[in-house]
Amino acid sequence: MGFIASGSVLLAGMVWGLRLIIDPGPFDEGSAALLATSIVIASATTTLGLVLARGQWARRLGLGILGAELLLAIAMDVGVWGGLTLLATSLSITLLAGPWLDGFLRRLPPAEPLPVPAMTLALGLLFVPAVLGVSAPGGVGALHWLAGLAALMTAWAFSRALPAGLWSARLLVPVLLAAAGAFTTAPGMIGVLAAAGAVGVLAWLPASAHAVRPLIAAAGGVAVPPELVPPDLLARAGYDDRGRPIRRRR
């Protein structure tokens, strides 16, 4: 049942993505495409978190996404696609909030949990395209697409503990969001600029920096006296009992 509940989140996200692309309703096609991209990727991330990590955070994230989908349904027309999206979302909420996942998910926290700011940053970047699409329902420009794609690539790099992902979240994404906000009409501009500030603040917190740095610094080799090494091990490594390289006869 756990796998069915996990897959229902992705199914609901894909149904919503199809609806926004085929029948965007009050949104412009470009704005709906950005919103659909966020919903599908965030839903896939939730499903992977439920199936692979068995994390409680994935359950909470999934419920948050499904709740946002219900709010989005209120702003859109009820039709064939509206019925499908409501059915998929309601079914997924029932499966995710019910007791069926209690034994499927991990109950104890991980031994070394990720810092909350780092986790919030990695997941929050997935919703940047959605913020851009909702903030500019009448249409988006090239800067909006550039900021949204940069946020998704940054989320991937940061989740892989790449320093480039951290610096992109600190500098590139906030700058692109601020530039996109300048070409967004009010009140959508407020939402875009707020997203830029949130990403920048989270990325500059020490906990986010620790997420991409090794806990143990790399150390060089340590000399070991040959008397402490077994002779057969020295021989296989090409050294004699005094630690000198063995010269091979040609």
Give a verbal description of the structure.
The protein is 67% helix and 0% strand. By secondary structure, it is an all-alpha fold. Helix 1 (2-22) packs antiparallel against helix 2 (29-53), helix 2 (29-53) packs antiparallel against helix 3 (56-74) and helix 6 (128-135) packs antiparallel against helix 9. The model has no long low-confidence stretch (mean pLDDT 87).
Counting DSSP E segments of at least 2 residues, the number of strands comes to 0
The helix-and-strand class reads mainly alpha
State the major sheet. Answer: none
Number of helices: 11
Low-confidence runs (pLDDT<50, min 5 residues)? none
Outline of the structure:
With 250 residues, this protein is mainly alpha-helical. It contains eleven helices and no strands.
Helices and strands in order, then pairings?
Layout: H1 2-22, H2 29-53, H3 56-74, H4 80-97, H5 116-124, H6 128-135, H7 142-159, H8 163-182, H9 188-204, H10 206-210, H11 231-237
Helix pairs in contact: 1-2, 1-4, 2-3, 2-6, 3-4, 5-7, 6-7, 6-9, 7-8, 8-9
